[in-house]
Amino acid sequence: MNNPVVIIGAGLSGLRTASLLTEKGIDCRVLEARDRIGGRALSASVPNRPDLGRFDLGPTWFWPQYEPQMAALVKELDLETFTQHNDGDMLVERFQIKPPERCVLQENMDERGVRLTGGIQSLIDALAESLPPETIKLQIRAKKIRMDEDGNVTVEAEQANGAVEHLPAAAVILALPPRLVARHIEFAPSLPSDLLADIAEKPTWMGSQAKAVAVYDTPFWRKSGLSGLVLSSAGPMQEIYDASPADGAGALFGFFGIPAEVREQMGQEKVIRLVESQLVKLFGKEAENPLAILYKDWASDSETAVEEDSSPFKNYSSYGQPPAAGSWDEKVVFAGTETNAQFSGHLEGALQSAEQAVFKVVQSNS
After folding, report:
1. pLDDT, tens digit (0-9, with 9 covering 90-100), for 40-64
2. I need a surface site. Which of 3, 42, 83, 230 has the fewest CB within 10 A?
């Protein structure tokens, strides 16, 4: 290949694509609109307290017994793992005006998820460190992809200062949510209409969700025999889990039952106050005054979701590879967790889609 493969998106799929191409001796560049790598893989620290660890505001765990690519990559990168803590009773919150019910948690130990010490960000960082310097370019947004009559491809990208770059590409791998491609990237000539319709209808995983993590000095709920697991129909969080590191600090994270539009109307400050009140109701006075509540609303992140993603989705069958790309076939390849039918929404899906994209690019250029 005379030109590098250009990868758009520096999430897990994009970075894994880059590492696989690099292993094969194929030059590549990764373009990322954000000022950070990771995409929806995001681990945050409490401000001024990095000693407490990092807490996942995106994906949190994986299942090595079912997800072979993820298990193999974690082993290859020599990352430390620990088993998700679920020991103890769970709480069920059915009504706002009544206390939660305590239930014995029936669980198969072999089915527990596994987490990474240092959060999922440790996987992202390790992949980035495996790449040659200058492979990743941050704060540069792909705006247009052109192909001339001879099949030569150029990516037009805009830097944060407004300067425009034109990058010749042997092929382009689109490792970002398909709806972002449909909404924000222009193609000349145009992509086939059935492909455009397909990617415009693929819901962005986590695109309607928000996640909050309350951090404490210790996982105090465990001493009273609670697992930290809560199922709630009273809200605002409808699922809560123990998010504590392997040792040291305690943490509880939850997914919201409040729709994205309502969260936006409330504002972050009010949403966090509701989270605090719910945790006190569930876990008592020790849940008051957490060291911090980390919050990420993915629905309001324009680098993740579009307006159509705000509504919860049920059409899982739309996930998988888009239709053939017509004249763009072999020049434009889709990756990302939404393009993997079997493990869509999982880290495993992002990794398997990366392998599939690399295989297609190598085959078409061999």
Report:
1. 999 999 999 999 999 999 999 999 9
2. 83
Q: Do residue 139 and residue 9 come from a single domain?
A: yes
Which band of pLDDT confidence, cut at 50, 70 and 90, is reported for residue 276?
Answer: very high
Residue keyed to tokens 């240092």:
118
Which of 262, 284, 303 marks a domain boundary? 303
**pLDDT, tens only, 210-227:** 999 999 999 999 999 999
Same domain, 68 and 166: yes
CB 104 within 8 A of CB 227: no
239 and 355 fall within a common domain: no
pLDDT digits (tens, 9 = 90+) for 238-263: 999 999 999 889 999 999 999 999 99
What are the backbone angles phi and psi of residue 62, rounded to the nearest 5°? -145, 170
Distance, CA of 355 to CA of 287 (rounded, Å): 44
Do 165 and 298 fall within a single domain?
Answer: no
pLDDT at residue 112 in the model: 84
- The domain tally of the chain equals 2
Tell me the three-class secondary structure of the chain, residue by residue: CCCCEEEECCEHHHHHHHHHHHHCCCCEEEEECCCCCECCCCEEEECCEEEEEEEECCCCCECCCCCHHHHHHHHHCCCCEEECCCCCEEEEECCCCCCCEEECCCCCHHHCCEEECCCCHHHHHHHHHCCCCCCEEECEEEEEEEECCCCCEEEEEEECCCCEEEEEECEEEECCCHHHHHHHCEEECCCCHHHHHHHHCCCCCCCCCEEEEEEECCCHHHHHCEEEEEEECCCCEEEEEECCCCCCCEEEEEEECCCHHHHHHHCHHHHHHHHHHHHHHHHCHHHCCCCEEEEEEHHHCCCCCCHHHHCCCCCHHHCCCCCCCHHHCCCEEECCHHHCCCCCCCHHHHHHHHHHHHHHHHHHCC
For residues 126 and 117, the answer to whether their CB atoms sit within 8 Å is no
215 and 249 together in one domain: yes
Confidence bin at 307 (pLDDT 50/70/90):
very high
**Stretch 223-235: mean pLDDT, rounded?**
94
